[in-house]
Amino acid sequence: MKLIEQLINPAKYRLKCPYVLDWEYITIHETGNDQSAQNEINYMQRNNNATGFHIAVDDKVAIIGIPLDRNAWHAGDGANGTGNRKSIGVEICYQTDYTDDKYYQAWNNAAEVVKWLRKLKNIPIENVVQHNHWNGKDCPKRTRQEGTWDKFLSLCKEEATGGEGVGNFKEGYQSLSLLGSIVHVYKKKLVQKLGMMSAEGSIPERAVQNIDKIDNEFIHWCKINCGYFEMENKAIYGQHYGVEQSFTNDFAPKQNDWLVAWLDKDNSMHYDTANNYWLWKKDVQCAFSPAVIMSCDGKIELVSKAVGYSKVTNKTTQSVLIELPGKEYVFAVFTGNVNLLQVRDFAKSYGAVMLYALDSGGSAQMISEGAKKRYTGRAIPNVLTFFTGGEQEPVEPSEPVQPSDPTEFPNQDLKRITVIKIGLYIRESLGGKIIGFIPEGAYQDFNYIKFIDGMQKDGYQHCEVNGNWSYKGVEYKNKDGFIQYDSSCYLVSE
Ligand SMILES: [Zn+2]
Questions:
Q1: Residue range 17-69, pLDDT digits in tens
Q2: Is the Cβ–Cβ distance between 366 and 222 less than 8 Å?
Q3: Which one is predicted more confidently, 247 or 184?
Q4: 39 Cα to the center of ligand 1, angstroms
Q5: Which domains occur in the chain, in start order?
Q6: Ligand 1 centroid vs 27 CA: distance in angstroms?
Q7: Cα angle vertex 264, ends 260, 268, to 5°?
Q8: How far is the CA of 54 from the centre of ligand 1 (A)?
Q9: Ion ligand 1 — residues with CB under 5 Å?
Q10: Is 330 exposed, middle or buried (0-12, 13-18, 19+ CB in 10 A)?
């Protein structure tokens, strides 16, 4: 059976699912007709009745039609009824189909869905109830007629919930699923430590490492993109000295816009806003910059001001560090459109106590044991890692690549770079000082542009350029430089 999401148009939230739902029950219905799950979902989403349900299950597929974190009017127990406001509604399809065994297959699949739901939020079997429980309606009708409810519950009990929690993640890599999308999970092995590999693009001696290229006998086990936290050391394996942090030196934000989580000498995790962090830095093994910090008991502890609360509710690809009791840690990358509330429910069902949200959307990445488990868009060259072994020698920076002689490109017409989305810096050398800037929407004509093959250590593709520009009042004529660009910046040559 496939589990897929086809969520209702948010324009219908007011009608069909106006309230946020923190569910504690699972309510079982049958549809009273002979239609497939797809038809049930289509009808429910299309009509203008308030009534609805969360999931329809047939012999082949389970379709989520209303988000699991919003209520649906399915229980008939009133606007403030527990059924309507605290339960997920699951519809078993083909109730009136007696032509073959489609109904029984749907019924069995519904038990699978209930098992999965129970695991998500650690729901006790007592809280799996019939629609009848809430308002006395004869639903799920065929189950009630055929006397199979106890059998259904027993199926929902098999391989009981993940609520036993701790230990449900096995050590090392595994793939799981949430709302029909893959979750790449890596639980730290006992011999491994949590550390951060961070480097900096604009200071050559702190040579940036692409996540692909950060790979050696110590840290190749698992690494995950993470918001940047500047390190004084160049290659960090469990040591941290710095406090200044930002995504890049070019956009250094105010400290209090950002969060920091840090592991102390006793392997306990702490967190605060970045401007309070300096008080603690002497005790730090490893520090990183999450966007959101959530307790799995339901509290959202801190949200980075620079990121905003939408980071919690937006559905996107997510990467997180999960903290289990006993100072155990797990990396997870969620490949589908899930928000952090759903991620937290998932983590909680595996016994998690805290969740540290890292990168999302276009930069969520995990590489474990050498294989890319998830890799989207451009790299951000900072990783949290589970590493083995001791302190590492600082990585020697590579020689900056010098611009080619412009005479290699004689008589070429001007080439133009147009920046569609975000600004582009022009640097004197790769990772060197900034000598020009092209803001969003602007363009720059160059005497030549030459692409350097492949993604560079800072996670961008680079171009060598020669042109005229000014920056901070200084004019440059026929100056050689380098630019970084990625898919957000369109490069157009004319
Ligand atoms: Zn019902």
A1: 999 998 999 999 999 999 999 999 999 999 999 999 999 999 999 899 998 88
A2: yes
A3: 184
A4: 17
A5: 2-162 (3.40.80.10), 172-387 (no CATH), 406-485 (no CATH)
A6: 8
A7: 90
A8: 12
A9: 29, 131, 139
A10: buried
